[in-house]
Amino acid sequence: MIQLLDKIHHKDSKNFFLIAGPCAIEGEEMAFEIAEKIVNLSDKYKIPYIFKGSFKKANRSRVDSFTGIGDEKALEIIKKVGEHFNIPTTTDIHENAHAELAASYGVDVLQIPAFLVRQTDLVVAAAKTGKAVTLKKGQFLSPESMKFAVQKVLDSGNDKVAIIERGNSFGYTDLVVDFRGIPTMQHYAPVILDVTHSLQQPNQNSGVTGGRPELIETIAKAGIAVGTDGIFIETHPDPSCAKSDGANMLKLDLLDDLLGKLTRVREAIL
Predict the structure, then answer these.
(1) Above 80 in pLDDT, residue 207?
(2) For 240-268, what is each residue's pLDDT tens digit?
(3) What would the pLDDT profile of 65-119 be if each residue is shown by its tens digit?
(4) Domain that holds residue 35
(5) Tally of structural domains, the chain
(6) Measured at the alpha carbon of residue 123, what is the angle toward residues 242 and 47, in degrees to the nearest 5?
(7) What's the mean pLDDT when you consider all of the chain?
């Protein structure tokens, strides 16, 4: 998929590729601060990079949870980030109409959320835009079952597809990553390990999702060691103030050290 994205940099570096950014677009200044930091790091370590930001948060625990600053406003910010830094962008979509809407703002990669990955109409709508499509593996699905989601994209005439691993449900309030699934799913498409969402602790009694960010480095190193194609990390200058998923995000100033370590792991296994 990476080789088919026009604006991706460092395609020939043999490094893993990175999808990173805030959970949700909170404003233009914040989005540009995060993007600039990661662009500089991606150049430093020769990492192909895709900026990620959700224009709308639809899967929320409570009706009063933050859902966004407005669809068009957030998409315009994502568009500006992509144009300013000349990098590809990605956002998640939740309804069929969102596919064309996001595509119209120049989003390069449409992400299908884990809970919606079996929704055929949504997957097909994303594929038919001609944009690249990433399919988050449902927490309730086996690695083998993802071949059918991939096939829906291929059958729609689109070969720009990848799978995102984000852990499996482990009881009611925890997730666990089964690293055996990564090579299995690589038979169907490139695989990206969503490090930060794999460390969520959903369904807390408070109605606010928890997380284990202290394990981000552990999960990320393991993913690179088993040969995952890409890494997905949500990051924020101050996760404690983030309006969405702050409990499992990486503090932005910790990203440099982490990417350096992951690059060295990658070099060791090549």
Answers:
(1) no
(2) 888 877 778 899 999 999 999 999 999 99
(3) 777 899 999 999 999 999 999 999 999 999 999 999 999 999 999 999 999 999 9
(4) 2-269
(5) 1
(6) 55
(7) 93
In the structure encoding, which two tokens stand for residue 102, read together? Answer: 């996001």
CA-wise closest residue to 216 among 190, 169, 244, 251: 251
Encoded amino acid at 212, one letter:
R
Q: What pLDDT score was predicted for residue 68?
A: 85
202 φ/ψ angles, rounded to the nearest 5 degrees: -75, 170
SS (H, E, C) the chain: CHHHCCCCCCCCCCCCEEEEECCECCCHHHHHHHHHHHHHHHHHHCCCEEEECECCCCCCCCCCCCCCCCHHHHHHHHHHHHHHHCCCEEEECCCHHHHHHHHHCCCCEEEECHHHCCCHHHHHHHHHCCCEEEEECCCCCCHHHHHHHHHHHHHCCCCCEEEEECCEECCCCCEECCCCHHHHHCCCCCEEEECCHHHEECCCCCCCCEECHHHHHHHHHHHHHCCCCEEEEEEECCHHHCCCCHHHCEEHHHHHHHHHHHHHHHHHHC
Q: What angle do CA 208, 213, 215 make, to 5 degrees?
A: 135
Q: Which two tokens stand for residue 169?
A: 């449900």
CA dist 224 and 51 (Å) reads 20
Q: Are 27 and 72 spatial neighbours (Cβ–Cβ below 8 Å)?
A: no
> For position 69, which CATH number holds?
3.20.20.70
Angle between helices 96-104 and 71-85 (to 10 degrees): 40
- Cα of 217 vs its chain's centroid, Å: 16
